[in-house]
């Protein structure tokens, strides 16, 4: 089991009492980044409480084995998209995609994400496989008040 999975196993049970869900988790060298979200977003009070709870749980379990910096944050207005679940939640939103260098066609793709399934996504009329995507994020559109619907 990798560091991400081990830390995820420690963090998940801690989040439930705070009514937040794990949006993303990264363990990169000395940084442990826990990204949480919930309907209506998270505020500083929630982030502070979750940070204390996650810190205590990680200290008790010691899944990392070396010194680290813990960062607990929200996904923000423009969200990174890395997993099929994250892409599925962003269907209907505008996204910016950077393709890997060896992929045929335009390297940068921007448009409305119209579909996301287990194989890949569709932006405009272009079907993109997950393994072809280098980086992706949602685009916040100023001046619009889109209300995101949560998909369970």
Structure description:
It is a single chain. This protein is an alpha+beta fold and 152 residues long. The protein folds into two domains: 3-73, 2-Layer Sandwich (GMP Synthetase, Chain A, domain 3), CATH 3.30.300.70; 84-138, SH3 type barrels. Helices cover 24% and strands 32% of the residues. β1 (21-28) and β2 (31-37) form a beta hairpin. α1 (3-15) packs across α2 (44-61). The protein is globular and about 50 Å long. It starts with a helix and ends in a 14-residue tail after the last strand.
Show the helix and strand layout:
Layout (H helix, E strand, L loop, with lengths): L2 H13 L5 E8 L2 E7 L6 H18 L7 E5 L10 H6 L4 E6 L8 E9 L3 E4 L2 E4 L3 E6 L14
Parallel strand pairs: 2-3
Antiparallel strand pairs: 1-2, 4-5, 4-8, 5-6, 6-7
Index terms:
three-stranded mixed beta sheet, 24% helix, GMP Synthetase, Chain A, domain 3, 152 residues, 2 domains, SH3 type barrels, five-stranded antiparallel beta sheet, alpha+beta
Summarize the structure.
The protein is of the alpha+beta class and about 150 residues long.
Secondary-structure content class: alpha+beta
Radius of gyration: 17 Å
Average pLDDT number? 89
How many strands, what sense, and barrel or not for the largest sheet?
Answer: 5 strands, antiparallel
Distance between the termini: 27 Å
Tally of separate domains: 2
**What is the name of the CATH topology of the largest domain?**
GMP Synthetase, Chain A, domain 3
CATH class of the largest domain: Alpha Beta
